[in-house]
Design goal:
There is one protein chain. This protein is α/β, with parallel strands linked by helices. 39% of the residues lie in helices and 18% in strands. A four-stranded parallel β-sheet has the order 3-2-1-4, sandwiched between helices. The longest helix is centred in the middle third of the chain and has 15 residues, at 40-54.
Length: 107
């Protein structure tokens, strides 16, 4: 195993499925985490469960990753809260297929 104590991870799409599993895996290794998704109520429940189980800091942020302003606001809140980001897991799904360097914000 590895130790992520003192590291900060941000996980998008963290209100269900793989996103929750990723959040738990990083918290299990000691990382403080910010969990992002559109459904704040689900994020708050997940955050409380992870805090209790792994004794790490968890910041739930309602964010629609298709909205650049919301993503920027989430980034600012994470930096304000934790001071840094060490790990970024972009788990939120989408259906537009494009190369990363060719995709627009709208896509």
């Amino acid at each position: 195993m590895f130790d992520l104590t003192g590291r900060v991870a941000v996980i998008t799409g963290a209100s269900a499925g793989l996103g929750v599993q990723l959040a738990e895996a990083l918290a299990r290794q000691g990382a403080n985490i910010a969990i992002l998704a559109r459904r704040l109520e689900k994020l708050e429940t997940i955050a409380e469960e992870i805090r209790e189980k792994y004794q790490v800091k968890v910041l739930p942020i309602a964010t629609d990753v298709t909205d650049t302003d919301e993503v920027n606001a989430a980034r600012d809140k994470v930096i304000e809260t934790f001071g840094k980001v060490d790990i970024l897991l972009n788990n939120a799904g989408g259906s537009k297929a494009a190369k990363i360097d060719e995709a627009t914000d709208e896509e």
